[in-house]
Amino acid sequence: MLSKIAIPSLFMIAQVLAHQNLHQFWVNGVSPGYEVGIRMPPNNDPVVDVLSNDIACNVNGANGANVAVIPANAGDTIQVLWDVSTHPGPIVHSLQGPVSSAKSATGVGEWFKIQQLDYVDGKWANEVVMANNGRFSFKLPSNLASGEYLLRSEMLALHGSTTLGGAQFYIGCMQLKITGPGGNCSPKYRLPGAYSASQNNIYIPNFYYGFVPSTYSAPGPAVATCTGGGSQPTTLATTTTSRTTTPATTTTTTTTTTTTPATTTTTTTSRTTTTSSRTTTTTTTTSRTTASGNGAPLYGQCGGQGWTGPTTCASGTCVVSNAYYSQCL
């Protein structure tokens, strides 16, 4: 009798523990405090109706009047702290703004992605977050206009995606005041509106039978490209090496003297040789680096626009998350 009661109880506990919330974040390693600057939902239940306004900033997430607005700069490193979950799925971060007021913005409307991690090297994003004790880091774009923004963190649990409406969205919205050089980011997408319950990255009937995780991409458009504002656009680095051989000219002069009984004639012949120039251009795009020994630790940052730290990994592979952030996985 005891075992019949204990087994479902343990199952229910496991389900509750698998639910999650965003609890804290850091800007360049400095946190405003636990649950400060975040629109906290009433519980850790998921949003499953993708057509509701809750898909933007979670239940009761439309009002940020009592939530602090945290300062940041374009290009800063953001680290978030989530409850860990064993449920497979991606992590996505998006910005809305500039808005007239982060406290009054509802979150309903246009957003643009600044980071996305799906399934890389045999691991879902939730596994990466779980292995790092719930923490995950990324960078703000360097091309952002100054103003107030909402920063949306989304973890999508796909274990229930075999059922229509079964995918679970966990969402946390942070309020930021960003100082930047200016810029425009695209593409943009609307919430609600961009997600539908039946699209093939939300409803996956064969998720546990024949589905290929490496083909998966999270809902919404690609990570945005931000341009303007006096900084370089958010594109992968390309290195071009040019080698030029300077033209060389060699002149050879030959003098011939002919003597006759009455006349001596001297003839001079000139020959000019020109060596043409050659330019070789090599373009290399690097998206991941594998290294051993010295380098960034597992799950540490190993690259991105403006990054001055290690670009190799002491353990794992350097994987591009976006133009601003690469991580050892």
TrEMBL record:
SMART domains: fCBD. GO terms for cellular component: extracellular region. One of its GO terms (biological process) is cellulose catabolic process. It holds the Pfam family CBM_1. Residues 229-292 are annotated as: Disordered. Residues 233-292 have a biased composition (Low complexity). Its cofactor is Cu(2+). It is found in: Secreted. It catalyses: [(1->4)-beta-D-glucosyl]n+m + reduced acceptor + O2 = 4-dehydro-beta-D-glucosyl-[(1->4)-beta-D-glucosyl]n-1 + [(1->4)-beta-D-glucosyl]m + acceptor + H2O. Residues 294-329 form the CBM1 domain. Keywords: Carbohydrate metabolism, Cellulose degradation, Copper, Disulfide bond, Metal-binding, Monooxygenase, Oxidoreductase, Polysaccharide degradation, Secreted, Signal. PROSITE patterns: CBM1_1, CBM1_2. SUPFAM superfamilies: Cellulose-binding domain. Its EC number is 1.14.99.56. Residues 1-18 form the signal peptide. GO terms for molecular function: cellulase activity; cellulose binding; metal ion binding; monooxygenase activity. Has a modular structure: an endo-beta-1,4-glucanase catalytic module at the N-terminus, a linker rich in serines and threonines, and a C-terminal carbohydrate-binding module (CBM). Lytic polysaccharide monooxygenase (LMPO) that depolymerizes crystalline and amorphous polysaccharides via the oxidation of scissile alpha- or beta-(1-4)-glycosidic bonds, yielding C1 and/or C4 oxidation products. Catalysis by LPMOs requires the reduction of the active-site copper from Cu(II) to Cu(I) by a reducing agent and H(2)O(2) or O(2) as a cosubstrate. This is AA9 family lytic polysaccharide monooxygenase. It comes from Drechslerella stenobrocha 248.
